[in-house]
């Protein structure tokens, strides 16, 4: 198994940052209970508070794929569709 990391960024539309924050915080607990999760931490950008950043580590690509299909992530995606201005997900592997 090759460990992978994810940096997931969501930028809230103006006026939607608190709704997005609460919803993002709500998926932390269920995700931390998933098989294969090593780290799942939510951050808020100090200079741009509408920007939220997840720093994640997973045991494998398969564990990440299962996470993406989980019920709480599917529900999250539907809930925030109108609140997110921009989203970006980068899957990376550690090289040093």
TrEMBL record:
Signal peptide from the UniProt entry: none
Q: Which residues form the ABM domain?
A: 4-93
Q: Give the Gene3D superfamilies listed for this entry.
A: 3.30.70.100
Q: Which GO terms describe its molecular function?
A: monooxygenase activity
> What are the alphabetically sorted keywords of the record?
Monooxygenase, Oxidoreductase
Task: Check the record and name the SUPFAM superfamilies matching this protein.
Answer: Dimeric alpha+beta barrel (SSF54909)
Pfam families linked: ABM
User: Does the keyword field hold Phosphoprotein?
Assistant: no
List the protein's name: Antibiotic biosynthesis monooxygenase
Q: Which organism is it from?
A: Paraburkholderia antibiotica
């Amino acid at each position: 198994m090759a460990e992978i990391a994810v940096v997931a960024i969501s930028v809230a539309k103006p006026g939607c940052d608190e709704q997005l924050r609460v919803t993002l915080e709500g998926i932390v607990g269920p995700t931390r209970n998933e098989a294969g999760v090593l780290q799942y931490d939510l951050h808020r950008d100090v200079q741009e508070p509408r920007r939220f950043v997840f720093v994640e580590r997973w045991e494998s690509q398969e564990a990440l794929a299962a996470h993406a299909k989980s019920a709480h992530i599917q529900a999250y995606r539907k809930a925030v569709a109108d609140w997110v201005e921009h989203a970006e997900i980068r899957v990376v592997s550690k090289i040093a």
